[in-house]
Amino acid sequence: MRSAVLSLLPLLAVGAAAQAENLYTATATSDVYAAQATAKTLSNTSNVKGKAFDRFVVIWLENTDYDMAYGDENLNWLAKQGITLSGYHAVTHPSEPNYNDDFNQIAKNVSTIIDLLEDKGISWAEYQEDMPFSGFSGKAWVNQQNGKNDYVRKHNPAVIYNSAAGQVDRLASMKNLTMFQQDLQNDALPQWMFITPNMTSDAHDSDIQTAGAWTRNFLEPLLNDKKFMKNTLVLVTFDENETYSIQNRILGILLGDAVPAELVGTTDDHFYNHYSEIATVEANWDLHTLGRFDVGANVFQFVADKTGDRVRAWNDDVTELSQRYFNFSYAGAFNTDGGNRRYPAPDLCGAGKTHNRTVLPSIQEMWSGSSAPGYYTAELEIPDGLNPPSGYAPVQ
Ligand SMILES: *[C@@H]1O[C@H](CO)[C@@H](O)[C@H](O)[C@H]1NC(C)=O
Ligand SMILES: *[C@@H]1O[C@H](CO)[C@@H](O)[C@H](O)[C@H]1NC(C)=O
Ligand SMILES: *[C@@H]1O[C@H](CO)[C@@H](O)[C@H](O)[C@H]1NC(C)=O
Ligand SMILES: *[C@@H]1O[C@H](CO)[C@@H](O)[C@H](O)[C@H]1NC(C)=O
Ligand SMILES: *[C@@H]1O[C@H](CO)[C@@H](O)[C@H](O)[C@H]1NC(C)=O
Ligand SMILES: *[C@@H]1O[C@H](CO)[C@@H](O)[C@H](O)[C@H]1NC(C)=O
Fold this sequence. Notes:
Layout: H1 2-18, H2 29-38, E1 55-61, H3 66-71, H4 73-80, E2 83-85, E3 88-89, H5 113-119, E4 124-128, E5 140-141, E6 151-152, H6 157-160, H7 162-165, H8 168-171, E7 174-176, H9 177-185, E8 192-196, H10 208-222, E9 232-238, E10 252-255, E11 267-268, E12 272-273, H11 274-285, H12 301-307, H13 361-367
Parallel strand pairs: 1-8, 1-9, 2-11, 3-12, 4-7, 4-8
Antiparallel strand pairs: 2-10, 5-6, 9-10
Helix pairs in contact: 4-10
């Protein structure tokens, strides 16, 4: 009896680890406060030199057209402290392709930038304003005083991927902004971080003036804080633009002491999109790639100047950029109409790529020989719903 129980233990341990993505999904107030008292929090640090920066910070605001964002006085003030990216485009509407506000979990075999960073020993964290505790994976948490929307799972990119949420230590690195201030004071900020303001602060439930004021209020003191500015590059951007019938162009602002002094106050009008956020980090630290649209994306120009990457112009012969709206998605894993729900396979060979980075070995191992459809190329010109990838069939 006893030995039988003992021999089961390792199996149970494996089983429990596999369920980490479901450990902290309960949203009842009592469950949340109980977990808040016990959930693990991790503040990993590291010091891996990059070619253009040693720390990367992304702040995502919500649903605002380029002109509205650039016209906001506080965002405009921030833009003048750094580089304005005027050719920055979102990928689709709504912000999660085939987004349906459901509780989505992306299969464990889909890797993320977190895998690429950890592979090179680069520390990372997310800081989500008003997330009730590190690793909370529930759908939402409202303001306990007034019941307003506050933290939402759909604005927490890492938790949606089971490859990230399925490991307790990774959950422990998905933290709230209280932890940001604590990590800052303790000089324990990681090298890569993603920051999401709450549903009011990010303009989702408010307006661009509120979000602009929040962002300046948050960043202005940090711009002069030696514990934050350690060859740091900050990107302030938006998930998507608001008006669906016009092109999905959004504002991007690069800030921080990693921005070369002579570029402060300038504009970079190259074509970038959200995959550029990944490609730039890959180029900076010589990371592997995901084998998806990160492979072809442009690296931000001033970084590319130091990494040897070539920043390309959108090729209007492929399809005119002005005719690309990026305003809806072709069906994918979250499609509710039944078809095309397979996860596409990454491109493991990367034919035609303009750099020497290769696909992460663990991704190659997982996906080699997969019969899943492959839509990825090393081209800058990514598809959208009106221009689906070659090989895509509407129903399968
Ligand atoms: C933030 O997360 C920490 C760590 O889980 C938790 O102790 C703290 O109560 C949270 N802060 C707020 C304001 O919810
Ligand atoms: C969002 O955060 C701000 C502070 O950044 C706070 O004043 C506000 O109450 C929060 N909103 C909600 C709905 O909790
Ligand atoms: C934290 O650091 C440890 C030790 O360097 C490393 O093994 C682990 O992958 C890191 N975890 C995260 C979530 O960064
Ligand atoms: C995308 O924009 C084009 C051009 O304005 C428009 O014809 C189309 O209806 C839009 N699609 C959606 C889903 O809004
Ligand atoms: C890729 O590697 C080759 C061979 O080492 C080298 O000649 C070339 O410059 C590299 N290309 C880039 C973009 O780094
Ligand atoms: C990835 O996971 C999905 C969902 O579980 C599965 O359908 C697919 O076959 C897996 N692909 C590979 C290559 O393992």
